[in-house]
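Bench log. Compound arrived from synthesis this morning; before running ITC I wanted a structural hypothesis for how iron/sulfur cluster sits in the protein. Inputs:
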Amino acid sequence: MRESASKRSAAARTSAAKTGAAEKETGAAQKPASTASAGKAAPAGKAAPAKKAATEKAATEKKAAPAKKAAAAKKAPTAKKSASQAKKSAPAKRTSAKRAPAGSVAPLVKKSAPPKKVTIAPKKATAAVKGLAPAKTVAAEPPGGESRTALVRRARRINRELAQVYPYAHPELDFDNPFQLLVATVLSAQTTDLRVNQTTPALFAKYPTPEDLAAANPEEVEEILRPCGFFRAKTKSVIGLSKALTEDFGGEVPGRLEDLVKLPGVGRKTAFVVLGNAFGRPGITVDTHFQRLVRRWRWTDETDPDKIEAAVGALFPKSDWTDLSHHVIWHGRRICHARKPACGACPIAPLCPAYGEGETDPEKARKLLKYEKGGFPGQRLNPPQAYLDAGGKAAPPLGAG
Ligand code: SF4
């Protein structure tokens, strides 16, 4: 199981070079749930969260012995400072341990290996990516009284846990090239990725290039796009951006943020989906799931997507940004839903300050989990080739293991 999970993980990382969640700048697509996570997802009645938290706490405290006062230091932590800060601020873990009572959560991830040493180096993380850097500013003080060091550790721990639950996380839109991903992402506003995946084959068969789509008869395109909803506006957008690609970029999708956001109907979120998944450039996709979850986890209190992007980007190395986006969005679609988060079946309950916002009874919570479609993780009708090459196979539904 582990081996296949790691295979999937490898596949996912490869495929993660591709897509991400693709709701348009406004879209909130709910999807079914998944796989390997399943097995991890539910063994009821095991009280791991509290234990886990205790293990972590012990590990943290072990490191954190000296210099209580030094913890007050404001910045540029040396290793010692970090440790003392961590001690002072351990409340995050303590809190979650309190809130996620033993036995009430069915942990998906059992490993209680001591937390890896985390490099707490927001310096690297805050570094701007040329041309697409989000972070202008970084939240000086984390919300909730947690120290910055503790926040960074907790955030990275959450990401690691989610990577194990969703080792195959990848963009859920089918695409073969940047143009297709760009169009599919625009179409995904206010509808599901599955619906888009069912619609785009006909569109790209008839209009395979930007030039073809730019010259298309809008009424014919509208007919094809009708199932996606808002089909008139979407037709206008995809024809408009195809014209812009043809006239301004030689028929190629540009690989720079500043160029992408000039295209009609393309905002930062869509641009980062394309950059991260079609060009392999790190990007954080702040969609509706991402916004909701990072606030629940108290990674930031910001509400503006650009500020969220900056604050969260500062917690992780750039190299993590694209996969992080997939993990968060997959978790939002499958477990941590907007209205009924399935806290009782959540693998990261011990790390979550919002535990209890949703159903905590493991049995009831499992019923809230969303499932995969078509036997493959996610909503792709054509799973990424890298995923298949790495031995990817149909995933059991969450909670089935
Ligand atoms: S709020 Fe979301 S992340 Fe937190 S425990 Fe509940 S389901 Fe998990």
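What the model suggests: The chain is about 50% helix and 0% strand. Residues 1-401 form one domain.
ITC booked for Thursday regardless.
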